[in-house]
Structures are given as C-alpha cells and as structure tokens.
C-alpha cells in the first residue's frame, strides 16, 4: 500500500462545502418547519407508502423525495449536471444496493440521518455508526475493489430514452398527489418541495452524486480525494445551530399541556419531539444490530459508490444504473424487515 497523497486534480473543496451547506440548509428548514429529521433512507421508505399513507407528515415526505428526484431531472436536462458515465456493472449495483438498503434499515439511518443529522444533534450513537460505516467503506474501497476488477466493469449504459422518463414521471405524479392530498394545509408539501430541491442540488454540487468521486474519497491507498469531507463539514456547519435550538425547545418545554411549538405546521406537543435529543451509544439496546447494519452499509456504499439520496437524484437524471440500484436498495430494506428479528438476537 502506497502512502496516500491528495488527488488535487479532482479535489473540489469549495464546491463540496457549498453543496454541503445546501444540504444543511435543506435539513435545517425541514427541521425547524416540521420538527422532523431529514434522513433520506427513512423518508424515502415512508414516501413509498402511497397506497396506505400514515401520519399527517406523509405529504411532507412525499414532496421532499419527489422534488429531490426532479431536481436531478431539471439539472440533467438543462445541461447543468453531467451524469457519470461509469456507475459500475450490474453486479456492483445489485450487491451494493442490497447492502446499502439492508444496512440502512438495520442501523436506522444513512449518511444523512446519522451523518448530517446525527452528528449535528450530538448523538454518540450516530458518531459510533458513522465511524463504523466510514471505516468499513474505506477498507472495502481500498482493499476489496482492487481485487475484483471484473465486478465493477461498467456494463450498464449511462442513460437510455426510456430511463429518462421513469422516475421523473413517477415523481411528478407523487408531487402533484402530495399537494392535492394536503390542500387544506399546503405548507407541508411546499416545505417538502423546497427542502427536496435544496437537498438534491446540494448532492450534485457537492459531488455526492458522482460514484467515482465517492470511491475516490473512500479509497485511501494512493491518490485520495478528500472533497466529500467538506460536504459533511458544510452541512454540519449550517444545521448544528438549528438542532441545538430545537433541542433547547424540547428540554425547556416539558409540560405535556404546552401548546407552544417552534415549528410551522405540526400539531405535536414538545414531549413528542424527544427524538431530537442526542442518542446515547451506551444506552442503545441494539448495538449488535446497528453495528451489523453500519458494516453492511459501508461495504455497499463503497461497492456501488452511492447511498440512497444520490441514487434517487441520479435516477431523476435518467441513469440506467441508478434505476437498477434504487430497487435493490428497497429490496434490501424489505429483506431485513423480515429477517430483523433474527439479527436482533445475534
């Protein structure tokens, strides 16, 4: 293994920090307006419950995901964003998607949920899991990928005419449905749309929607591209204070009868926002399951070069690889849903 050196040819600290700041702004607006955490894997999972939506915040989540996907569509069609021509082969997309989906389900979060939101709310549980999936991702990208070059051959075409319409059309329908179904309180889908657009643009500007850039960040063997560290830094710099403010509201207003709320539209009391408080690793009851999830997620992230958010944005851009990857993420979540009780006993 050679001594790591910074890959200055691909190093984009300003763009990555700016993209991270947009992700942080999206997360902050989402938090302060709704009291919710913008963890993409969880939001996406809930947004798919269109046949049996539950909770008043369903239009918020559906509009967020739909707008994030459509941000990729607009950027690609306008020429502002070039879809990567190398998203890997079928094997890497399928295996990577399954691992990312199952891992996100087991650890209850992804790079946004545990990374941006978890670290910003000072969660030691998220810190442990982020360190775990980052370490596993680095080990996978550095040592496993070079041993299996055939596994990552670019056997999937970058785009196709049909692929350019599948997710955008579905997202357009979802966005329209979110506004129609919540027309009595249009603020919810409106906030979701704004946050989804900001999040999607942040992913593209920061480089998270470029699988090769992700792999370049995780592979520390020779030339290392640390750009994505600036994405995380930019996001946390923006959203750390809003999380601190929201946590202060929860701590200072514990009266179950209190009608005060810092948010724009939810009807919940402060006692129902306790999930915004830091999560302790020492008090976490499912350490083994979460660590298994973080390990699977890190490996899948390095193999595919994508986590759920970038996969959705690239699907909106019309990427065939992303259209293969996203269903595999969902399949991984679905498989774990049935196997989770067994893993919990590990």
Structural notes for this entry:
This protein is mainly alpha-helical and 346 residues long. It has one domain. The protein has helices spanning 13-34, 40-47, 58-77, 90-107, 111-120, 124-144, 163-181, 187-206, 211-218, 227-252, 287-304, 308-317, 320-344, and strands at residues 5-6, 223-224. It has a two-stranded parallel ribbon.
In short:
The protein is mainly α and 346 residues long. Helices cover 65% and strands 1% of the residues. It has one domain (12-344).
Biggest beta-sheet profile: 2 strands, parallel
Number of helices: 13
Structural class label: mainly alpha
> Which shape, going by the Cα principal axes?
globular
Quantity of strands, as a count = 2
What's the pLDDT, averaged over the residues?
Answer: 89
- Uncertain spans, ≥5 residues at pLDDT below 50? none
Q: How would you describe this structure in keywords?
A:
about 350 residues; mainly alpha; two-stranded parallel sheet; 13 helices; globular
Task: Furnish the topology, listing elements before pairings.
Layout: E1 5-6, H1 13-34, H2 40-47, H3 58-77, H4 90-107, H5 111-120, H6 124-144, H7 163-181, H8 187-206, H9 211-218, E2 223-224, H10 227-252, H11 287-304, H12 308-317, H13 320-344
Helix pairs in contact: 1-8, 1-10, 2-3, 3-7, 3-8, 3-12, 4-11, 4-13, 5-6, 5-10, 6-9, 6-11, 7-12, 9-11, 12-13
